[in-house]
Amino acid sequence: MARRETESRTGDSGGGSGSGGSGSGGRRERRRARAREDRVRQEARAATTAPADAPLVWGAGVGCRVLATLWLGQLVLLSPFAYGTDLAGLTAMEWLLRLWTLSVALWIFARLGAWRVTADRDGVAVPRLFTVERLPWDEVGKAAARRDGCVHVGSRITGPFLPAPLARLLRRPDGARAMADHLTIMVRNPELRPTERAGARTRVRPYAVWAPLPLAVLAAAHLLAG
Q1: From CA 65, how far away is CA 71, in angstroms rounded?
Q2: Which of 177, 133, 175, 185 lies closest to 154 in space, CA to CA?
Q3: Long-range residue pairs from 209-218, CB within 8 A, at least 24 positions apart, any chain
Q4: Strand-by-strand arrangement of the 123-127 sheet
Q5: Rounded-to-10 torsion of CA 107, 182, 203, 125
Q6: pLDDT tens for residues 123-162?
Q7: Is the pLDDT of residue 7 over 70?
Q8: Measured between alpha carbons, how far is residue 41 from residues 58, 124, 178 in Å?
Q9: Which residues contact 179 (CB under 8 A, 6 or more apart)?
Q10: Phi then psi for 122, rounded to 5 degrees?
């Protein structure tokens, strides 16, 4: 009796393990299928893509700039330094929290409305908060689009574009996937890379460069409110 119960428990455990393995195998197969689809699509695009002379630039479009403007509007309305507040009466911790909140808000504003990625003959330039990361072509690896509209370029995340589900709903091009595909085929096909370096008009700038604009708007709002 005891032996039959032990064998039954062992059989149940084995069945559960097999089921988990099958699920894991299914996920791997789906990933492989998506990778094959991406490869076929990218090879088809590479066959119809002409070599670029000038650097290629991707950046914030109208939608991103509208979102950045709306974000700035709510920042003006809900300023971390509330209108009429006695700033001299704030404690050091209150100053720290307000400055941190303002810094994050300014970063989000620039991240939405002023992002830019440039691909030239030397590689891909991606903005950071205070610097620009320049990735040589042999370090870019594979660019991949995310469902939220952002793009993985090497170890960096840039964008956003219109998220893929929303782009399909509105029957708009999937900008994130188009950018990721173009970068990927240039990694694999050096002859399709731009032959020129980025100049002043196409150069990528750190996000912090754009901070004076929202700061000026906030300062004006406080002056008018005072």
Answers
A1: 10
A2: 133
A3: 209/114, 210/109, 210/110, 210/113, 210/114, 211/106, 211/110, 214/72, 214/75, 214/105, 214/106, 214/109, 215/106, 217/72, 217/76, 218/75, 218/76, 218/79
A4: 56-59, 116-120, 123-127, 132-136
A5: 60
A6: 999 999 999 999 999 889 889 999 899 999 988 899 999 8
A7: no
A8: 20, 22, 10
A9: 58, 117, 143, 145, 151, 159, 161
A10: -90, -20
Burial class (CB in 10 A: 0-12, 13-18, 19+), 133: middle
CA distances to 84, 107, 179 from 96, in Å: 19, 16, 39
H/E run at residue 157:
strand 156-158
State how far the Cα of 111 lies from the Cα of 129, in Å rounded to an integer: 9
The tokens describing 98, both together, are 């307000």
Q: Quote the pLDDT of residue 124.
A: 96
Token pair for 79: 């300023």
